[in-house]
């Protein structure tokens, strides 16, 4: 038997059903006996939604009103009545089992499953298997329209069924017409058989995409395999504590591939609020895209297309150790972070205790290590059931040794991602290569109260200079040379802000009026007119908001250490060598015994490798957030300025072994402390020849008394 089911929500209708998260307000159904071709009673039930505000389309199509819905039963009661009435009708027809049949997949996958999941009650088993009438119709009549273009009306017209929609109530006509279509498919000319129903997975299957071959395990999601580009999406804006099960619940009703949720991590190994999700086919992926800006709790989640290559970069792995660890089926994975570097397997098992036994004992533990074997303080643990995992999570921030341990739910993809990240980490990382190795002519940043600048707020984090120029449109011709400044946060990442210097205050005003709340990459960007003084405050780490200006840390009293040098006049930039910049006074002059009102400007020297900068946009900025024109590393003594400005520099790349890296320095370490640390080692003038060749006059900068050297 079939139970023909039709429903409607308080929002969109037709192809957009369920895309706006509106609640179900109507269910209509009728039992059909496929053998005797008899039907049961047609039932129509209104559903009381939490929000009775109906869309205009809903009012027009359904004819329902908030007053009528206010007297209806809530969804859980209606579903109970549905089960009882269907059982009663089946008993009258002499049948005991049935399968749902709906017009397409939206009602069940995009409405019923997501809504019941949010309201925390379970659907009965009958809602996990159903026939899609559109697919069945196309199978029976291959010459009909494509499945995605089918509707109840087009199917009825194809068969020549003369039903008048206006004569019946909304929902009743749809069910009666669907029943008539089914009887036509069962006629002698067609003899259609309903054999392969659509299925909805009861739960998300964790673990890697593993294929067993003999006694070995191979990760099919390894970097050498491929994943269909039409099955992957990127979810953005996730709560940082969300797990793969939370994401699967967000996509409830859609079938995610086994191990198909890959949580993305940032450079520190922490979740960044994004995930890549792989579905079983492109049809499920397309339905997932309709959940763009649906809510997980109080947060809306952005859903975009992604590629199989992106998924493999996050979820793929080739480590036999990881494959063996994840080869056990249906395990709950917990990540432990902050373990003492001396912690052993016995220590971890003792920390977890007998109330949460680890699957396989020591074999259920996986310590994360650097390529040289040093521990990172992370580990993954397998548990055979949810109860044991919950007991382990209760130990979050308990003490092991002298450190508190953090415990989080994890996924197979996260295990692979963390292992891949740490195992591929070079022992001595280098600075990222600048995007364009260009050193333009000297320039200055304007200051003062003239409002000839604009601030862009809310930029996508992936936005670059080209995106900003495209966003500005025709106004790009009014931007001053080198007038685009990206603002980064203290971790050196895009903050979503940028400042642009315009040729005049009028031009800045026009841009602010024209581009305010204009869209860039699906995000609207706010554009405000501001002054050079306000821009400099933010570039130096201050804040600019409705409350006014808050000075940056370096503007506060007792600057320690003075990290950014001030520049007043133009300086020469030697070709391919140390960069000498001269932005106007963004900070007070570096405090030295010789400092005075008439003191000459300081000069900043950059090492040869770091000197290839693109003035508007570089891949690396020091913190706090600054424009690349405000960076100062080493302040030179006044007496060396003129000589250094005219000196000819011929940089020579350091020879192997010429550089050493210091890791773990205290945050307040200055140049004096570093030189003191190396006391006893010679750093005579000749020692610098292998790094940068300097003239005698310019070398005096590096030989300056230590009290002249500051960071």
Description:
This protein is an alpha+beta fold. Helices cover 25% and strands 21% of the residues. Among the domains are: 2-199, Nucleotidyltransferase, domain 5 (2-Layer Sandwich); 232-315, RRM (RNA recognition motif) domain (Alpha-Beta Plaits, 2-Layer Sandwich), CATH 3.30.70.330; 320-423, RRM (RNA recognition motif) domain (Alpha-Beta Plaits), CATH 3.30.70; 453-540, Alpha-Beta Plaits (2-Layer Sandwich). The protein has 20 helices and 28 strands. The strands form 7 sheets. Strands 1, 2, 3, 4, 5, 6 and 7 form a 7-stranded mixed sheet that branches. The radius of gyration is 33 Å and the shape is globular.
Any descriptors?
Alpha-Beta Plaits; alpha+beta; 21% strand; seven-stranded mixed sheet; disordered C terminus; globular; Nucleotidyltransferase, domain 5; 711 residues; five-stranded antiparallel sheet
N-to-C span = 80 Å
Reported by name, the CATH topology of the domain at 2-199 is Nucleotidyltransferase, domain 5
| Main structural class | alpha+beta
Rg from Cα:
33 Å
Helix content: 10-25%
General shape? globular
Number of strands: 28
Unreliable parts: 210-224, 427-444, 552-657, 684-711
Strands, helices and their partners?
Layout: E1 2-9, E2 24-33, E3 38-39, E4 43-46, H1 56-62, H2 66-69, H3 75-93, E5 99-102, H4 106-118, E6 129-132, H5 133-140, H6 152-159, H7 172-185, E7 198-199, E8 210-213, E9 216-219, E10 232-236, H8 244-250, E11 256-265, E12 271-279, H9 282-289, E13 294-296, E14 299-305, H10 308-315, H11 320-325, E15 332-337, H12 345-352, E16 365-369, E17 375-383, H13 386-393, E18 398-400, E19 403-409, H14 412-423, E20 453-457, H15 465-472, E21 479-488, E22 494-502, H16 505-515, E23 518-520, E24 523-530, H17 532-539, E25 543-545, E26 548-550, H18 641-646, E27 650-651, H19 671-677, E28 692-693, H20 696-702
Parallel strand pairs: 1-5, 5-6
Antiparallel strand pairs: 1-2, 2-3, 2-4, 6-7, 8-9, 10-12, 10-14, 11-12, 13-14, 15-17, 15-19, 16-17, 18-19, 20-22, 20-24, 21-22, 23-24, 25-26, 27-28
């Amino acid at each position: 038997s079939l139970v023909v089911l039709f429903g409607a929500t308080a929002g969109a209708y037709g192809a957009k059903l369920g895309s706006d998260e509106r609640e179900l307000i109507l269910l209509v159904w009728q039992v059909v006996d496929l053998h005797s071709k008899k039907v049961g009673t047609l039932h129509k039930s209104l559903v009381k939604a939490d929000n009775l505000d109906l869309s205009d389309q809903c009012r027009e199509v359904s004819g329902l009103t908030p007053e009528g819905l206010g007297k209806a039963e809530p969804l859980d009661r209606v579903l109970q009545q549905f089960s009882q009435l269907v059982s009663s009708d089946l008993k009258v027809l002499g049948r005991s089992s049935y399968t749902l049949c709906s017009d397409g997949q939206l009602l069940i996958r995009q409405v019923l499953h997501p809504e019941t999941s949010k309201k925390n009650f379970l659907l009965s088993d009958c809602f996990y298997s159903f026939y899609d009438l559109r697919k069945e119709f196309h199978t029976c009549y291959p010459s009909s329209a494509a499945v995605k273009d089918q509707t109840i009306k087009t199917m009825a017209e194809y068969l020549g069924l003369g039903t008048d929609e206006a004569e019946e109530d909304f929902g009743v006509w749809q069910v009666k017409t669907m029943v008539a279509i089914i009887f036509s498919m069962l006629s002698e000319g067609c003899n259609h058989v309903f054999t392969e129903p659509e299925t909805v997975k009861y739960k998300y299957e964790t673990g890697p995409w593993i294929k067993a071959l003999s006694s070995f395990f191979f990760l099919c999601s390894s970097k050498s395999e491929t994943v269909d580009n039409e099955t992957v999406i990127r979810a953005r804006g996730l709560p940082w504590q969300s797990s793969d099960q939370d994401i699967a619940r967000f996509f409830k009703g859609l079938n995610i591939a086994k191990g198909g949720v890959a949580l993305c991590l940032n450079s520190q190994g922490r979740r960044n609020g994004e995930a890549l999700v792989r579905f079983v086919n492109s049809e499920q992926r397309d339905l997932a895209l309709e959940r763009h800006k649906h809510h997980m709790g109080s947060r809306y989640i952005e859903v975009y297309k992604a590629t199989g290559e992106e998924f493999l970069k996050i979820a793929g792995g080739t480590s036999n150790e990881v494959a063996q660890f994840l080869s056990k089926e249906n395990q709950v994975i917990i990540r432990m972070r902050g373990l003492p570097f001396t912690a052993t397997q016995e220590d971890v098992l003792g920390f977890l205790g007998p109330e949460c036994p680890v699957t396989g004992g020591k074999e259920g533990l996986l310590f994360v290590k650097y390529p040289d074997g040093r521990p990172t303080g992370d580990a993954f643990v397998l548990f055979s059931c949810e109860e044991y995992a919950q007991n382990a999570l209760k130990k979050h921030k308990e003490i092991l040794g002298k450190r508190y341990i953090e415990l989080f739910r994890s996924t197979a993809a996260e295990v692979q991602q963390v292992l891949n990240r740490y195992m591929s980490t070079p022992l001595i990382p280098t600075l990222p290569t600048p995007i364009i190795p260009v050193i333009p002519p000297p320039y200055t940043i304007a200051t003062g109260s003239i409002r000839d600048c604009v601030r862009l707020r809310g930029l996508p984090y992936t936005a670059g200079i080209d995106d900003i120029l495209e966003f500005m449109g025709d106004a790009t011709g009014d931007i001053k040379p080198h007038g685009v400044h990206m603002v980064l946060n203290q971790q050196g990442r895009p903050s979503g802000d940028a400042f642009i210097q315009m040729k005049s205050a009028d031009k800045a005003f026009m841009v602010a009026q024209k581009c305010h709340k204009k869209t860039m990459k699906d995000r609207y960007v706010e554009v405000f007119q501001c002054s050079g003084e306000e821009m400099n405050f933010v570039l130096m780490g201050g804040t600019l908001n409705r409350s006014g200006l808050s000075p940056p840390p370096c503007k506060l009293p007792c600057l320690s250490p003075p990290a950014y040098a001030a520049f007043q006049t133009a300086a020469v930039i030697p070709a391919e060598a140390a960069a000498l910049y001269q932005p106007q006074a963004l900070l007070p002059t570096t405090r030295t015994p010789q400092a005075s009102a008439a003191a000459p400007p300081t000069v900043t020297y950059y090492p040869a490798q770091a000197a290839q900068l693109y003035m508007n946009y570089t891949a690396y900025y020091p913190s706090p957030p600054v424009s690349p024109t405000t960076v100062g590393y080493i302040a030179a003594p006044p007496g060396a300025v003129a000589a250094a400005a005219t000196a000819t520099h011929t940089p020579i790349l350091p020879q192997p072994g010429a550089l050493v890296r210091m890791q773990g320095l205290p945050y307040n370490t200055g140049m004096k402390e570093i030189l003191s640390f190396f006391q006893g080692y010679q750093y005579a003038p000749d020692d610098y020849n292998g790094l940068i060749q300097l003239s005698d006059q310019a070398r005096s900068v590096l030989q300056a008394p230590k009290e002249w050297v500051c960071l």
